[in-house]
Design a protein that fits this description.
Elements (H helix, E strand, L loop, with lengths): L23 E4 L3 H12 L4 E5 L7 H4 L3 E2 L9 H17 L7 E2 L2 E4 L4 H13 L7 E3 L1 H7 L10 E4 L3 E2 L2 H15 L2 E4 L3 E7 L2 E7 L2 E4 L2 E4 L5 H7 L7 E10 L9 E3 L3 E5 L5 E5 L3 E4 L2 H5 L1 H9 L5 E4 L23 H4 L9 H14 L8 E11 L6 E4 L6 E5 L5 H17 L28
Parallel strand pairs: 1-2, 1-13, 2-9, 5-15, 13-22, 18-19
Antiparallel strand pairs: 3-8, 4-8, 5-7, 6-7, 10-11, 11-12, 14-17, 14-18, 14-20, 15-16, 16-17, 21-22
Helix pairs in contact: 1-6, 1-12, 3-12
């Protein structure tokens, strides 16, 4: 079985000298950071994107590959509808495409009570006139004939899509570079310097860049970087495991899953299958510090993370990971270029058993690769996308809660607008940086 293709052994594709000065620096080479740099460059804004490891080597290449509106928070739905348009444009603009396919997404109800939850989400989504609808058991059997009649019905959105995470984000980075963005892999940002309380430069392991505007799109590492700057958000990182199968006959082109497993067809003829509802939280200092923020989710039964012992050394919330370091000393971001968690072998073994139960007429998948990623999670299951009042010049776009790949192009465009003080075209009040500390009532996103 092969391992995950994105490692520190990968050759650097994006290299450049650091300029002495630029208008905007983007920290983080995942889908959010790359798309932010792309839209800034296309508007003629001088921008430098700095990535400590490799472009898309962490969660942006490790996710399920879904581009879905289904099940999203009402505040995210119009943003995801915009993201669909960007994905369609990328498919046309990039030679060879990004593997974009309109496949539909199914939420399969393995418990009768799930249907009521789907109906509740449909009521909230009604103003957006989506094509989402409930399937009866009989309708589901007709749509998914290879499956055992295990499910009570499903929520179905035929217009939802999928793309190829291993392919897409590096190719979008190519577009950004062609548009004029300067992209530098293997270059960690250690800290920000300020003048008069506002951002005045970024300090990297390779030197300093003068700038008055910085975007932090660091995924699972964002909270650690913010704490170095005296700022905090209750973001945690949780492990999610996945498996790629070898090529196999297509039993469905639809992406779907229930409360125990999910599946999607890949462009290479295999499937990505994952344990659904099985994310693991390694307990560390930030987890204890954030207990108060996550209590409402715990009380409402929406805390689906399995608690695990202390994180391995070097992880963002490991006990030994420094929270303070000097600008001229090695940072945690240099010590771990790529966060490459070991997948949960037991969960993946159970996954194959569950697959055989659901699709008894389909040949048992042959594992081709397994991996895990660290998802940046928030207590209310929606991200932080905002300018930081406490540190003028800093814009944060993080905490995507496992939704970042699909929605990333739109949040990249929005983040680019925020940096420039332009109208974003969307109501972003749900995603404010200060919402956990300014008395805003807790409002969890959908957990269907």
């Amino acid at each position: 079985m092969t391992g995950f293709p994105f490692t520190e052994a990968m050759p650097i594709r994006f290299a450049s000298d650091l300029p002495a000065r630029t208008e905007v620096v983007v920290i983080g080479g995942g889908v959010i950071g790359v798309c932010t740099a792309l839209f800034l460059a296309r508007q003629g804004v001088p921008v430098v994107l700095l990535e400590k490891g490799r472009i898309a080597a962490e969660q942006s290449s490790r996710n399920w590959g879904w581009v879905r509106v289904q099940g999203r928070d009402a505040a995210e739905i119009p943003i995801l509808l915009e993201a669909r348009e960007h994905w369609q444009a990328f498919e046309q603009q990039i030679e060879g495409g990004v593997g974009l396919t309109t496949c539909g997404v199914l939420y399969l109800a393995d418990k009768a009570g799930h249907i009521a939850g789907y109906e509740g989400w449909l009521a909230e989504a009604a103003p957006f006139d989506l094509d989402s609808h409930i399937l009866s058991k009989a309708q589901l059997t007709e749509l998914l004939p290879a499956a055992q009649p295990l499910w009570h019905g499903a929520l179905y959105t035929p217009s939802d899509m999928r793309a190829e995470p291993w392919v897409a984000v590096p190719r979008i980075a190519d577009l950004a570079r062609e548009a004029g963005a300067r992209i530098v892999e293997g270059c960690a940002v250690r800290t920000l310097e300020t003048t008069g309380g506002a951002v005045s430069s970024v300090v990297t392991e390779k030197g300093e860049i003068k700038t008055s505007s910085v975007v932090l799109a660091g995924g699972a590492w964002s909270r650690l970087f913010l704490r170095r700057m005296g700022l905090d958000i209750p973001q945690l990182s949780v492990r999610s495991s996945a498996m790629a199968t070898a090529e196999m006959p297509e039993f469905t082109s639809i992406s779907g899953g229930d409360s125990t497993f999910s599946f999607r067809r890949r462009a290479d003829g295999g499937y990505t299958i994952t344990p659904a509802g099985f994310s693991e939280l390694f307990v560390g200092p930030d987890a204890f510090r954030s207990l108060r923020d996550y209590l409402p989710l715990l009380r409402q039964g929406g805390f689906d993370y399995k608690l695990r012992a202390a994180a391995p050394a070097g992880y963002p919330d490991a006990w030994g990971t420094p929270r303070r370091w000097s600008a001229d000393a090695q940072s945690p971001f240099e010590r771990m270029r790529i966060l490459n968690p070991t997948p949960n072998a037991g969960a993946l073994a159970r996954l194959l058993y569950r697959f055989r139960q659901a699709f008894p007429g389909v040949d048992t998948p042959v594992p081709k690769a397994t991996w895990a990623g660290m998802i940046d999670a928030m207590p209310d299951v929606v991200p932080v996308v905002d300018r930081v009042d406490a540190l003028p010049g800093l814009t944060v776009s993080t905490g995507m809660c496992g939704h970042g790949f699909g929605i990333g192009p739109a949040f990249g465009r929005i983040t680019a607008a925020l940096v420039q003080g332009d109208d974003t075209g969307h109501d972003l009040s749900r995603f404010r940086f200060d919402r956990f500390r300014d008395g805003t009532p807790f409002q969890p996103g959908p957990t269907i």
